[in-house]
Each structure stands twice: as structure tokens, then as C-alpha cells.
Hints:
Elements: E1 3-9, H1 16-27, E2 33-39, E3 56-59, H2 69-82, E4 86-89, H3 92-101, E5 109-114, H4 126-138, E6 144-147, H5 150-158, E7 166-168, H6 182-192, E8 199-204, H7 213-224, E9 230-235, H8 240-252, E10 259-263, H9 268-274, E11 277-280, H10 290-297, E12 301-305, H11 310-314, E13 319-321, H12 326-338, H13 347-357, H14 360-371
Parallel strand pairs: 1-2, 1-4, 2-3, 4-5, 5-6, 6-7, 8-9, 8-11, 9-10, 11-12, 12-13
Amino acid sequence: MTKKIVFLIRDLNYGGAQRQLVTLAKSLNQQNFDVTILCFYPHCPLEKDLINSNVKLISLQKQGRWDLIRFFWRLVQYLKHIQPDVLHGYLTEPNLFTICLKPLFPSTRMIWGIRGSNYECDRHDWRVQLYQQLENLLSHFADLIIVNSHAGRDDYLTRGFPASKMIVIPNGIDTERFQPNPEAGAKVRQEWGISEDTILIGLVGRLDPMKDHPTFLKSAALLCAERKDVHFVCVGTGSENYARELHQLTADLGISEKVIWAGARSDMPAVHNALDVAISASAYGEGFSNTLGEAMACGVKCIATDVADSAWIIGDAGLVIPPKSPEALTAAIKQFIDNAQFNGKSREDIRQQVVTRFSVRQLLLKTEAAFLQ
Length: 373
């Protein structure tokens, strides 16, 4: 019998959780699952990835933060029509809505999706802090809580989440899409004006304090003081105010001509292939870093801060450093530059780490088993 699965998410903008949801929804077995995505907001860039798939996408047409009553009524009406067997929230707000809906749909299993760890909510406004407190209180009412990292599970256990309802399912990387492609990478480098003999070092991630772009930029300044053959790129978007702060820091460091702000890109496999070294400089809040897995699937050498599951993802194919240390990041990059094959690992060796451990097939097998419980 086909199970009706509804995913509830705020938006389908470029982001790790959003990309992971699209990958999962498209790949679920059509014979076993009828899949719908309910999205708070319309007209998001990742919607195009669902074209020609069997996934039904419905926008709830939310009109801003305080459009709650009409939004909730529309949500209820769609769910009454679909009558899902499973309602799977992705991230905090959708998770909370599943509990509000539980009395109206008592036969629907309410599953939460947790995508981060060590989330420092005191860095955010009162609304985010309130949501975090509500999530802690209401977690016991969820039927199942899927966490994408071991670090995330440990962190949420300390916040009072029920251990008996939590399982870890790591992200799945689409290794057919993300694979070595020097030609595609060369085209992106040409677009950015990067010569073949220039070392291109990149950070892929939204412009958010948790990604710690300042540490990346300070390390870039240290490297530029020693070498002329390095260039840097930041791929991702964020708030205009924070972007201005980062651009000002770049200018203050005297490296504006060495840093490319690429914004959001839809051709991420080509972007990863353009890099010589990929960096994850996150200071906190990560769960399972998609960008690390995707870069490694393209055979790119990676350096990550020791946050969440990053060290577990990299294994012995890259370098792990303490967070918030430009000096440690600089030393790690220099170690890569000086060693054409780190630990004797070729591009294919690096890729194989992901193919073996974090394939979409493994994600599907574990998620489908959770849905069929």
C-alpha cells in the first residue's frame, strides 16, 4: 500500500536543508510513497529542481511573518485533502506546526527533521530563542525525530529531547551530480578570471555568523601577505547588512582584489570543481555539512573546523582544525599547497569516502525504513 508523505518546509531557497529535502523527495520509491512538499513561501529557486519529478509542490502563499491564521487555515485544508500518513517537518518552525496539527490529524505520524547542532540561540533575536524553547518543550509530542548528525543528537539530548524518539540519518550526497569534472571547473575559473596556475580557495555557505566568514577572510589576508598565487571565493548569500560588514572587513584587510563574492549559484558541481581547496570555517551550529560532502564527491581537498560531524565526514582525506583560528586555517591551507597529494589521497580517493559512506541510496534506505515503521 502506498504511503502518503508530506514534507513541510519554510522555503526552497538555496541551502543545505532545502537541497537535501529536494534530493530525498525526488528519490523516494514511487511505488511505496506518494510525495508532496508544502512550502510556506512561493517562487524559490530550488523549485525548478522538482520539474519533471513525481513530487507535488504546493505553496501555502504565506504573506510574511505575521500571516498566521490564514496560513494555518490553508495548511489544514491541504492536509485534509491529502490525508497524509506522515507529516515530516524540516527545521524549527515546520516542526512546531506539526505538533499544532496533531490533534486535527491523530492518525498522521508527526516526524521532526533536525539539521544542526550546538545552536547558540543567544546570538539571535527573541523570536528564534522562543522557537528554540518551544521546540524543547514540545519535542516529546513528536512521533519520531530524525537528526542528520551524531553531534546534533548529542546536543539535542542535553536540551531535553527524548532519546527514545531520536535516530541519526546522515545526509545523502548525489554522487552522480557531484563528481570530478575539470572542464566544468575550468569554465567557472575562466568566468571569474582565475588563471590555471592560481590556487583558488573557496568557502561555500550562506552569509551567516555561524559560517564564520571573518576567520576565512583573516586567513586569506595572512596568506596574501606571503604568496601572490592565491585567490579566494565566497559562494552564497545572506542579509544585506551582514554582507556589507563582510565586504568592509575585506577592504580593511586590504584583500578586496583577492576575494570574489559569487553570490548564489545553481551550478554547484562546477563551482566545487573550480576549487583547489574547499573550506568549512563554521564556528557553531553545523549538523552534517552538505558542502563538505559535495566538495569531496568532486575530489576536492577539504579543510573543516572541528564542529559537529565535520571531522567524521572528512576522515583521513582532509584536515580538521579548531574553530575561530585564522592562524590554524592558514597553516592547514599551506600544508595542502605544499603537498600535491595529502596523505597520498588522489581525487578519486577523496571522492570514494563519500560514495562509500554518504550515498543517496543509504539515505533512502534509512529514511524509507523510518517512514514504514
